[in-house]
Design a protein that fits this description.
With 421 residues, this protein is mainly α. It has 20 helices and 2 strands.
Length: 421
C-alpha cells in the first residue's frame, strides 16, 4: 500500500502540468499518508546502521528522518533569505553592465558564462530567475529571448552540479556525506564546463545569434549601484563561506548558512537602518518549494524504512552490468521526471563510501540531464512559467543541444581515470 501511494503521488508530481495540480500537494499528502499507513498498520520498519539492518520503532524512525530532512529545509531557508536580501538592495540589477556588448554571439557567451558561474553560488533556479529578469530588459524581442533562455537553462544546470550549494540535488549529496567540496569540484568542474561550452559553441552558429545588438546602459543611480555591488559581494562571499566552514570547522551546512544569514542581516540592519528587513526577506522565501522538498524527502524515507529501496538497489546491481550505465540512465530519466526524488532515492538505495565515483556521476547526470527536456529541472520549469516557453518548441530547438552537452561531460567522466594515472 505504501509503495502504491508513492507511485501514484510520484506520477502526479511528474505530470503536474497535465493534471493541473501543483506538485507541492501530492508531495505533502504522499509523505503524510505513507507514514500514517506505516504507523497505523504497524508495518515493520528498519534502519541501516553500519551495514546491519536493525528493526526500529516507526515513530522513532519518523523523527530520525524528519531531522535529516530538516537539514536540507533549513539550509534552503537560509539560502533563499540571503538571496532575498541581495534582491531587495538591487544586487543583481547592479551587474547588468557586465552584459554590455555589440554582437548577439558575444552576448550569448557572456550570458552563458554568467549563468554557469552564478548558479554555482546562488543555485541554478535562482540564477535562471535573475537572468530572466535581466534578459527582459536587454532583449526586447520575445523570439530571440527564448533562444538565449534555452542556453541559460543548460548553463545554469551545468554550473550548479560542481558546487555543493549550486543545485539542490548536489546539496542533498553533500549534506548526506556522499561527497566533499574539494573532490566534487575536482571531479565535476571540467565535465560541467565542457557541457556548457560545447552547448554554447553549437548554439552560437545558429542563425538567430548572427548580427548586432544594442544594450542600454544600467539606469541605476550611482548610490544604488554601489550599494547593490556591496550587498552582492557580501551575500555571495557569505554563501561561499558555508562549504569553507564545513571543511575547516566541521559544522553542518545548515548551521553555516544560518550563520551567514545572521551576519548579512546584522550588517544590513546597521548600515542601512532597515527595521523591516526581516519581514521583507521572509515574505520572499518560497514556502511552496520548502514544503515540496520536505514531502519528497519524507516520502522517500518511508520506502527506505520498509526496506523497499534496499531491495531495489540489489535488483539494479544484479540487472545492470555496471553502475556507470545506471547513472547514465538516471540522467536521462531526470530529464522527464523530477530529479529531486530520484537523487533522494539513490542516496538511500546505494551504500557506496564517501567520494565514490558513483556519487560524482549522480551529481553530474541529475543536474545536466535535467536540461534535455524543459520539465526536467527547476530552472526549466521556472523559465517555462515565467516566459511561457512552449514544451515542443524547446524540444525542437534546444533539447538536442542539451543532449550533446550532457553526453560530452559524461564521456569525460568515463575517461577521467585515464588522465589521473
Amino acid at each position: 500500500m505504501v509503495i502504491l501511494i508513492f507511485i501514484f503521488g510520484y506520477l502526479l508530481i511528474a505530470l503536474e502540468n497535465f493534471f493541473s495540480v501543483n506538485k507541492v500537494i501530492p508531495s505533502i499528502l504522499m509523505a503524510s499518508i505513507c507514514w500514517s499507513l506505516i504507523i497505523f498498520l504497524n508495518i515493520p520498519v528498519y534502519e541501516l546502521d553500519q551495514h546491519l539492518i536493525l528493526k526500529k520503532d516507526p515513530k522513532y524512525l519518523l523523527l530520525f528522518h524528519l531531522g535529516k530532512a530538516s537539514e536540507i529545509v533549513f539550509f534552503l531557508i537560509g539560502a533563499m533569505s540571503i538571496i532575498a536580501v541581495i534582491e531587495k538592495y538591487s544586487g543583481f540589477e547592479a551587474i547588468k553592465d557586465l552584459f554590455y556588448t555589440n554582437t548577439k554571439r558575444k552576448f550569448l557567451w557572456i550570458i552563458s558564462t554568467v549563468s554557469f558561474l552564478l548558479s554555482a553560488i546562488i543555485d541554478n533556479l535562482t540564477a535562471t530567475m535573475v537572468l530572466i529578469s535581466i534578459l527582459r530588459k536587454t532583449i526586447p524581442n520575445y523570439k530571440d529571448r527564448l533562444y538565449y533562455l534555452g542556453l541559460v537553462i543548460i548553463s545554469a544546470n551545468a554550473g550548479g552540479v560542481w558546487s555543493p550549494i549550486g543545485d539542490i540535488t548536489t546539496t542533498m549529496l553533500w549534506i548526506s556525506n556522499k561527497v566533499t567540496t574539494i573532490f566534487l569540484i575536482k571531479k565535476i568542474f571540467i565535465p560541467s564546463i565542457l557541457c556548457m561550452i560545447i552547448s554554447t559553441l553549437i548554439a552560437s552558429y545558429m542563425p538567430v545569434f548572427n548580427g548586432y545588438i544594442q544594450i542600454k546602459k544600467n539606469d541605476l543611480s550611482k548610490y544604488c549601484k554601489n550599494r547593490g555591488f556591496f550587498i552582492l559581494k557580501l551575500g555571495l562571499t557569505l554563501m561561499l563561506l558555508v562549504p569553507v566552514l564545513k571543511t575547516v570547522i566541521g559544522i553542518p551546512p545548515y548551521m553555516g548558512m544560518m550563520f551567514s544569514l545572521g551576519i548579512i542581516l546584522v550588517i544590513v540592519s546597521k548600515k542601512y537602518g532597515s527595521t523591516s528587513i526581516l519581514d521583507d526577506v521572509f515574505r520572499k522565501v518560497d514556502i511552496s518549494s520548502i514544503l515540496f522538498f520536505l514531502g519528497i524527502l519524507l516520502s522517500v524515507s518511508s520506502l527506505e524504512s520498509i526496506g523497499s529501496l534496499y531491495s531495489l538497489s540489489h535488483w539494479i546491481n544484479e540487472t545492470v552490468s555496471t553502475w556507470k550505465i545506471t547513472t547514465f540512465l538516471f540522467g536521462l530519466i531526470s530529464s522527464i521526471i523530477d530529479n529531486i526524488p530520484l537523487v533522494a532515492a539513490t542516496i538511500t538505495m546505494f551504500s557506496y563510501p564517501l567520494n565514490h565515483d558513483l556519487w560524482h556521476f549522480i551529481a553530474y547526470v541529475s543536474g545536466t540531464g535535467g536540461s534535455i527536456f524543459l520539465i526536467g529541472s527547476a530552472a526549466g520549469v521556472s523559465a517555462m512559467s515565467m516566459e511561457k516557453i512552449d514544451f515542443f518548441w524547446y524540444l525542437k530547438k534546444i533539447s538536442w543541444i542539451a543532449l550533446i552537452g550532457y553526453i560530452s561531460g559524461f564521456i569525460y567522466l568515463l575517461i577521467y581515470p585515464f588522465f589521473s594515472l
